[in-house]
Amino acid sequence: MKICHLTSVHPAEDIRILIKECQSLANAGHDVTLIVANQSDQQKYGVTIKSVDAKANGRIMRMIKGPIQVYKKALQENADVYHFHDPELMPIGLLLKRKGKKVIYDVHEDVPEQVLSKQWIPSRLRRFISRIVKGVERYSAKRFNAIVAATPTIAERFKVYNNNTYTIHNFPILNELLSDGNSKAGTEGNKSKEAQILYIGGITELRGIKEMTKAIEEVNRKNRAKLKLAGKFSPTSLEDEMKKETSWSYVDHLGWLSREEIKDLLSTSDVGMVILRPEPRYIVSYPIKLFEYMSAGIPVIASNFPLWQSIVEGEDCGKCVDPLNIEEIANAITWFIENPEKAKHMGKNGRKAIEEKYNWEKESENLINLYSSL
């Protein structure tokens, strides 16, 4: 089939869109094009990437211009199936349906819940906008050929609107982040060595940056440890605020890293952290970073949400903590530093779980089966 994926928000090399979904479909023999905004035309992973100019002044104008330009380019492709990844492209999906095309909506996040914590939306308007988004999703989803949901919780909601709803988890590619011989417990055999505690991803208050930095400062009262941050701050003013804290001396901010650089960083880290605050949308999410730590064979410290606990404690690959409790977070880090053999064993358990259950290779089969059904 001729398949066209659409995004007006995500980068061309988005892991879920390009490297996992588009590449898997191309490897299965389909002709795959990805349309993106404000980037460059290129050929990668067997996928043709085409960009449109959607630059605009302000967020609202971008949300108007981006979908329009993406739609124009999409029509030129005359594909058999269109697969879009942003809620702002729902009207475009409906227009493509009216043209007689098959359309798939890939729902990465629970958008109505997400709206409730969007800082750029005035707080008094968030519930109203959330209800509108939910209504648009309900109307649109009924008309699309299929829904792809990133988590079972999202899938449950959309199955009410559309029976042809698939859960395609955003699990890691089996060997993408596993270094040769990677099973490091960095403090093993050297108690005086500085432990490397890792966080990968967007750096925000809701994702626990303040709790992580305070905890690492507490850890250093007894053990030597450094918090490695791989990602960008949002808003950028938060970075300036954090640099004023005494805890910042125990932090190494590496900025945005390539996948190869992430792989190298994982291979030298002792523990991976994902201690998001208990926001409704986070509690039912499947954080990709949790599974990437596991895939690299390092133990994890995760928020004690029931869903996350069922994975971390069920696979015995780490510890779950109250993400708002600094002392509990610090104690978990200290435990891993002081118990390197047990930490190494948990890292191996996590890797085993990835090999057996939580990998993209299994998820890609579901994606290809969905396309076959169309």
In a few lines, what is going on in this structure?
It contains 15 helices and 14 strands.
Mind explaining what this structure looks like?
- The protein has helices at 15-27, 59-77, 90-98, 111-115, 123-141, 152-159, 209-219, 237-243, 259-267, 280-283, 288-295, 306-312, 326-338, 340-356, 360-373; strands spanning 2-6, 31-37, 42-44, 47-52, 81-84, 102-107, 146-149, 165-167, 195-200, 225-230, 251-253, 271-274, 300-303, 318-321.
- It is of the alpha/beta class.
- It has an eight-stranded mixed beta sheet, with helices on both faces. Strands 11-10-9-12-13-14 form a six-stranded parallel beta sheet, sandwiched between helices.
- It is globular.
- It starts with a strand and ends with a helix.
Give helix % range.
Answer: 40-55%
The figure for the number of domains is: 2
Q: What is the level 1 CATH name of the largest domain?
A: Alpha Beta
Characterize the main sheet.
Answer: 8 strands, mixed
Distance between the termini: 10 Å
How do the strands of the widest beta sheet line up side by side? 3-4-2-1-5-6-7-8
Catalogue the unreliable spans.
185-190
Q: Could you report the average pLDDT, rounded to the nearest whole number?
A: 93
The CATH homologous superfamily of the largest domain: Glycogen Phosphorylase B
Can you tell me the overall shape?
globular
Q: Into which percentage range does the β-strand content fall?
A: 15-25%
Number of helices: 15
